[in-house]
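ugh ok so i messed up the first submission bc i forgot one of the chains. this is the corrected input, ALL of the components this time, i swear. 652 residues overall. if the numbers dont match what u have on ur side tell me asap before i send this to the collaborators (the ones from the other lab, u know who)
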Amino acid sequence: MTAPAARGRVPRGTGTGTATIMPQGAPNRRNTELVLLVFAVLIPLFAYADTGLAMDGRIPAGTLEYGLGMGLFALLAHLAVRRFAPYADPLMLPIAALLNGLGLVFIWRLDKARQLARNYPAAQNQLIWTGLGIALFIGVMVLLKDHRLLQRYTYIAGLVALVLLAIPAFMPARASDFGAKIWIHVGSFSIQPGEFVKIVLPVFFAGYLMAKRDALALASRRFLGLYLPRGRDLGPIIAVWLLSLLILVFETDLGTSLLFFGVFVIMLYVATERTSWILFGLLMAGLGFWAVATTESHVQSRITDWLHPLTAAPNGGGVGQIGQSLFALGAGGVLGTGLGQGHSWLIGFAAKSDFILGTIGEELGLAGLMALFLLYALLFERGLRTALAARDPFGKLLAVGLSGAFALQVFIVAGGVTGTIPLTGMTLPFMAQGGSSVITNWALIAILLKISDVARRPAPAPETATEPTQVLGPS
Amino acid sequence: MSELTLTVMRLGFLAVLWLFVIVAVQVIRSDLFGTKVVQRTAAAGRRNGAAAAPTGRQQPPPQREARGQQTQGGGRPRRGAPTQLVVVQGSLAGTTVALQGQTITLGRAHDSTIVLDDDYASSRHARIYPDQTGQWIVEDLQSTNGTYLDRTRLTSPTPLQPGAAIRIGRTVIELRK
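and heres the new structure output, hopefully the right one now
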């Protein structure tokens, strides 16, 4: 065979002539990434200046320093990618940087809303957490030589996830936790261990499903057109279901439990290609949700809020949280009121974390909100593209799991704020206030970039390609 | 601040945000990769010069290792020692494993170094390891469908030369320097 054909297949009988199909690697897109990163630093700066002009009538002091700082963060992250993951996806880092930068501007803007109840400055802390997040991003880039190393820690990851999830349930409850026990308080600051589980649990699922997917996919009986798995293969899914229900009951954290169960069902479906798992998953989630909803008062009040968002609170207050955010979104209209010109103090509770989407929707309008959702969708799409391109099954499953967790998170919080699904406390990735969330998401992006680097790395040129064909003849 | 300036900035910001989204989508558009179909007639002229020429525009140049003629093992054996194992055909084509003196196991079992997703592979199919002198040896682990070195089915541990193709089912693997 001649050299190019040796790398691909030669289709026969195509009519006009034969063609050679050659695998084509993705180009190294680091310069594209750099250009987009410059954009991603400049756009939040524009937003920062715009907000200052609207609220104080002048460009805020320190715009230059802030811009240089963010530019330095972005440059360091870019150099790490250039050095340690040269073939990685060019879009993930700029989109993450843009979302994080916009989040910082919105938090700073809400700090300045003086009428906001219980307002304490948060932008400074969020900036520090962002720095830590990018440090972790660079750390993962440098230390994680190959994502397949994570596969060794499959069961350790499972155990760590369980411990991290269980810790807050045993912590003394605090009045400031608002019903959900998901924080660990150390001194004056608190961390949410559940956030880190978003990375650890997909590692466990990917390792476990890779080992068991054949048994789950093939050893099944057909019944009414559905593939029913064997009883013993059902064990793990029931275990995870029970686990997520236990989280729900003991920590009354609807969002986290939905997130983990959703990620598990997505990964199960991807690993086995059986639609019946999705049906089972939905059925079990519905069943569990119904069971908890009939017993837990915290969950019940969330559902009432969702069904009747505009009913005034019984104690004579205004409408509930969802009603407030719906009013904010409505006030924004199509083009928004402009940065810094909304009435975000009317959202009385969690304005910087769960309800930051309300302020964004009011000040940027439907147009801005849709651009934001598209950015999240693009990030998710790049994750799935990485999974498609990855060669090893563990990398595929891990990429699907991580990007699935990311997308589910956006869906849960955006669905809650817009009144599509019952509201649950969950941070909007990269935008909302929350240190654990920011650093977890940066680590998540770093792992996805590592997988995409391996997946997009071009195949080494075949040894035979550059050597002349040996001709055997009489000597 | 005048109302006009603020309105312009408000709309300008939305425009810039959407510009970013559009540029990102453009990047995705130009980022397609996978397979490329080259017509034989068009490619024939370039065949002699550079075999990789049709992909040259899109692909970064292949790593050019200093490759001499000492492949026949005339000089010191360490000079031409292989540094990586490359899957050249099959569903894993393009996967590489760096050789650092460790044993490499091949098979469908999920704890193999290279997990073969190949219907004709056994769960523990073969292994590749260095002996005391550093020579790489390939050994078939009593697989069902056998391991082939070039055309011959392996029956005993066999020394492996760089560039020789090991075939397991539909997967072809070779050592590279």
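quick check: Chain A touches chain B through 69 residues (CB under 8 Å). that seems consistent at least. Chain A has 14 helices and five strands.
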